[in-house]
Design goal:
- The protein has helices at residues 24-35, 72-88, 110-123, 136-142, 164-177, 223-230, 296-309, 372-385, 405-413, 420-431, 435-439, 455-464, 470-477, 480-483, 486-490, 493-501; strands spanning 13-20, 40-43, 59-60, 94-101, 132-134, 152-159, 181-183, 187-193, 197-203, 206-217, 237-248, 258-262, 268-274, 277-281, 285-287, 321-333, 351-356, 361-366.
- The protein has 504 residues and is of the alpha+beta class.
- It has three domains: 13-52 and 165-236 and 337-385, FAD/NAD(P)-binding domain (3-Layer(bba) Sandwich), CATH 3.50.50; 77-159 and 239-333, D-Amino Acid Oxidase, subunit A, domain 2 (D-Amino Acid Oxidase, Chain A, domain 2); 405-501, no CATH class.
- Strands 3, 4, 5, 6, 11, 12, 13, 14, 15 and 16 form a ten-stranded mixed sheet that branches. Strands 1, 2, 7, 8, 9, 10, 17 and 18 form an eight-stranded mixed sheet that branches.
- Helix 1 crosses helix 8 (372-385) and helix 9 (405-413) runs antiparallel to helix 10.
- The protein starts with 12 loop residues before the first strand and ends with a helix.
- The relative contact order is 0.15.
Length: 504
C-alpha cells in the first residue's frame, strides 16, 4: 500500500476545524471560524459553490410566500437577515422591486395583496422601500408586456447582480485572508475519530491525511452521506426539490425589476433581470437524488407559464434559451418523515443545525443564502458548546471601506472607451479596493458588450481566485456562462485567445 502524502515536515497537518462542503453554508462557516481565531481547513469535492449554491434565483429575500402558510416568525427572521446583508454588502446586494401581476392564478386580489405586501414591509421593520398597489391601467404603463386588465402590487426585496456563486466566493476570500486553508476539487474519502479526527482527503490522484479537533458537515444535499461517513447520524433528514431557471437572449422587462406571477400550480414564478438578458423560473419538483438536469418537461412547463402571463407579439420559444440552471433545494424534515404527508410546495427552506458533542461534529442541514450570516454565527456557538476556545470574530463579513469608490470610477473613466460605468460598477462590486490592482495603468479592454467584464479582470481572477477549469472562471467567479450562450462564447475571438493564454 502506498504511503499517504504528508507535509514536507513529514507530519500530518493539524487543524482546529475541518469543514466539508464549500457552498454558502461551508463558506460562511469558514469565514466566521477563521475570524474567531480557528485554524480552518475547507474542502469541497468540486469547485467552491459548484453545486446547489450556483443554481439559485440570485435573490436575497424575506420569504414573502411563507405568509400564506402563517410562518410569521420565519419571515421575520429572514427579513432581518436580508436587511443585515443589504447593509453589509451595498454593492453586491441591491434592492429590487417585485411587480406582482394579479391574474386568475393569483391567490388574492388587489386589496388583500396590498395588505399582504404592507404587512411584509412592516414585519421586515421597514427595511426596504414601501410597497405600492396599481390599477390595471397603471400596471400596464409600468410594464407594457403585462396582460391588459390585470392589477398589480409591488414590494421590495434584494438581488445579487452578479451571481450566487460569486457571492459565496467572497466568504472564501475572507476566510483565506484570515489564514484558512481552502481546497476545491478535494474530497473527504475516510474518517476516524479517537478524541481527534483523522480525515483522508483526495485531490485528483493525490491522497493525504489531516487531523482536526472538530468537523463541520456543510455538504448541502450530500450532508447525510457525510454524516454516515463520520458516524454522526442527524435527527432531521433531507428531501429534495428540483428547481430550474432558463436564461433568454432578450429582456422582458422595461425597467430593472422582477416580474412576479403565480404559475398554474399556484407557486410564485419570476422574470428576473440578468444584465441585458432575462432569467425565468422556477419549478418545484420532488426528486430522489441531488443530481439533476433540465429536461424537456421542465422547459415546456416554464415556457408555458411565461407565455400565459405576458402579452407578447410573439411567444417565447425554446430557440431563445441561451443557458439554464438546474439544482435541488435540500429541505429539512423531521427524522423518519418522508415529506409525503406534508404540502410539498409549502415546505419552507429553513435550516437546522445539529451538534454531536461526543464526536465533535456540527451538521448544517438545508437553509437559504439569505440566512447565511445566522448560519455562521450559530456554528460558532455550537463549537463553543464543545468547549473549544474561540475568539470574538468581530465583523467577519461585509465589503469593507467604500472611501475610494469615487476615485476608482474616475480612474476607470480615464482608461476605457467602453461602457465605463458598467465596467467600473462590476469591478468595484466584485473586488472592492483590490480593483485598483486589477486595472493598473493599462487601457481597459471590454471582452463582452453588455457585461462590463475586461480582459484584465479575467486574467486576475484566473490567476488569484483558485480557478482550475474554464467553468470555474466563466460560470462561478464571473457570470459569463449564464448570460451568454455557448455559441456566443465560442465565437468571441478575444475571449478564446485569452483563455488559451491562461491555460484554460
Amino acid at each position: 500500500m502506498a504511503k499517504q502524502n504528508q507535509t514536507k515536515s513529514n507530519k500530518i497537518e493539524q487543524f482546529d476545524v475541518a469543514i466539508i462542503g464549500a457552498g454558502i453554508n461551508g463558506a460562511v462557516a469558514a469565514a466566521a471560524l477563521s475570524a474567531a481565531g480557528q485554524k480552518v481547513l475547507l474542502v469541497d469535492k468540486g469547485d467552491f459553490a459548484g453545486f446547489t449554491s450556483q443554481e439559485s434565483s440570485n435573490l436575497v429575500w424575506g420569504g414573502i410566500k411563507y405568509l400564506q402558510t402563517y410562518e410569521f416568525w420565519l419571515v421575520f427572521k429572514l427579513c432581518l437577515a436580508r436587511n443585515k446583508l443589504m447593509r453589509a454588502y451595498p454593492n453586491q446586494i441591491k434592492e429590487i422591486g417585485f411587480l406582482a401581476s394579479l391574474g386568475p392564478t393569483a391567490p388574492f386580489g388587489r386589496l388583500l395583496g396590498a395588505f399582504g405586501t404592507l404587512f411584509y414591509w412592516a414585519i421586515g421593520l421597514l427595511g426596504t422601500t414601501p410597497p405600492s398597489t396599481y390599477s390595471a391601467k397603471k400596471a400596464k404603463e409600468l410594464e407594457p408586456n403585462l396582460i391588459t386588465g390585470r392589477k398589480a402590487v409591488k414590494y421590495f426585496d434584494a438581488q445579487l447582480p452578479d451571481n450566487d456563486s460569486r457571492f459565496v466566493y467572497d466568504f472564501i476570500r475572507h476566510a483565506k485572508s484570515r489564514g484558512a486553508d481552502v481546497r476545491n476539487y478535494t474530497e473527504l474519502t475516510s474518517a476516524s475519530f479517537d478524541g481527534v479526527w483523522e480525515l483522508g482527503i483526495t485531490a485528483g490522484k493525490k491522497k493525504s491525511t489531516v487531523k482536526a479537533k472538530s468537523v463541520v458537515n456543510a455538504a448541502g444535499p450530500y450532508a447525510q452521506n457525510v454524516s454516515q461517513l463520520l458516524g454522526s447520524k442527524t435527527n432531521a433528514g433531507l428531501v429534495f426539490s428540483k428547481g430550474i431557471h432558463l436564461v433568454l437572449n432578450r429582456k422582458l422587462t422595461e425597467k430593472y425589476q422582477v416580474l412576479a406571477f403565480w404559475d398554474e400550480e399556484g407557486r410564485l414564478f419570476y422574470v428576473l433581470p440578468m444584465g441585458d438578458r432575462s432569467m425565468i423560473g422556477t419549478t418545484d419538483t420532488r426528486v430522489d437524488k441531488p443530481e439533476t438536469k433540465t429536461n424537456k418537461d421542465d422547459i415546456d412547463f416554464v415556457l408555458r407559464q411565461i407565455n400565459a402571463q405576458l402579452e407578447l407579439a410573439q411567444p417565447i420559444t425554446e430557440d431563445q434559451i441561451v443557458s439554464n440552471r438546474s439544482g435541488v433545494r435540500p429541505l429539512v424534515v423531521e427524522n423518519g418523515d418522508s415529506g409525503d404527508n406534508q404540502d410539498w410546495h409549502a415546505l419552507s427552506r429553513k435550516h437546522a443545525i445539529e451538534a454531536n458533542r461526543d464526536r465533535q461534529v456540527v451538521t448544517i442541514l438545508g437553509g437559504k443564502l439569505t440566512d447565511c450570516l445566522n448560519v455562521g454565527e450559530e456554528v460558532i456557538d455550537e463549537l463553543k458548546g464543545f468547549g473549544m476556545q474561540l475568539e470574538d470574530p468581530g465583523t467577519w463579513f461585509g465589503e469593507g471601506s467604500q472611501e475610494r469608490k469615487t476615485e476608482f470610477f474616475a480612474k476607470v473613466a480615464s482608461q476605457t472607451t467602453g461602457d465605463e460605468d458598467l465596467i467600473a460598477t462590476g469591478l468595484w462590486r466584485r473586488h472592492g479596493n483590490k480593483a485598483f490592482d486589477i486595472i493598473g495603468e493599462q487601457k481597459l479592454e471590454d471582452i463582452f458588450d453588455g457585461l462590463g467584464i475586461t480582459a484584465q479582470e479575467i486574467s486576475y481572477i484566473a490567476e488569484s481566485e483558485d480557478v482550475v477549469t474554464r467553468e470555474d472562471l466563466l460560470r462561478r467567479r464571473l457570470p459569463v456562462m449564464m448570460a451568454r450562450g455557448e455559441k456566443e462564447i465560442a465565437s468571441n475571438k478575444k475571449l478564446q485567445k485569452l483563455l488559451v493564454e491562461l491555460g484554460l
